[in-house]
Amino acid sequence: MSAPFVLTMDDKYVRPAAACIASIVRGTPDPEIIVISQGLSSRSKHALRAVGKRLQVPVDIREAAPHAQALPIFLHFSSAIYTRLQMPEILAEYNRAVYVDADAIAVRSLDPLRRLETDKPVAAVRDPFVPRCGQRWRNRVLTGVSPGSPYVNTGVMVMNLDEWRRLELGAKCIDFVVANHEDSDLILYPDQDAVNVVIGGMDGIELLDPRWNVPPMSDLWCTKGRLPTRHDLQVEEEAFVTHFLGRRKPWDADFPDGVNRSRFYELGTQGLEVIDALLPLDGPEVGQDL
Ligand SMILES: [Mn+2]
Prior knowledge:
Strand content: 5-15%
Radius of gyration: 18 Å
Structural class: alpha/beta
Low-confidence stretches: 284-290
Bound molecules: manganese (II) ion
């Protein structure tokens, strides 16, 4: 059985999520799409279903687990940080799932990801900027985590949900975040850090081909006033998934023009058209909840 593609979002991310969904549907035959709602308005849900209709793929919208709201909210994070960790329970009838960040765009078919059979709870790509745990947590000793072990970006993640449930990894990761939420050095990206410490620390992460999660290198360097290397440009060009991590997004006016931005608009166009018709940018419920 192949796995569903799962996105989580609030109202603010409906437009990029629609582009992401359109890009998946464009390249991958008969994908199963599940959206986990973080308090989506009924307008947003309606718009996402309309995107599915346009793409001729049903979009199954589920609610984030209710106890998410009772967990501590800290720094600039919303309860959304816990949603990925609750997926094994929200998707109780599935053995596996492919989680894709709403700020990602599929450049080619994601079929190999939904077919990936792994014994490990997680398969993900090493973070190109922070490839090792020793780099992420300098001078910290963490149980089971050696400085040389890989640090992964969880923006694209194949989840073996059976293993997550058997080993109670969602609860363990949430406990880790709750216990350490005041330690801003240990927890910078809460759910991603928890996956790397808790699941990485038990050798539970399989590394994927880096092409499955590629940041827009040239644009990120550009914003830092640095020129990308030829290698950066090549990696970017060959990406299977472009993941717009970082603060500046391709839908922002100041995002550099180039291959990455055009991928967002070209590969996501069918989703964007539906959203822009149903949720005009100056509408009352878009972009005002943060
Ligand atoms: Mn992201």
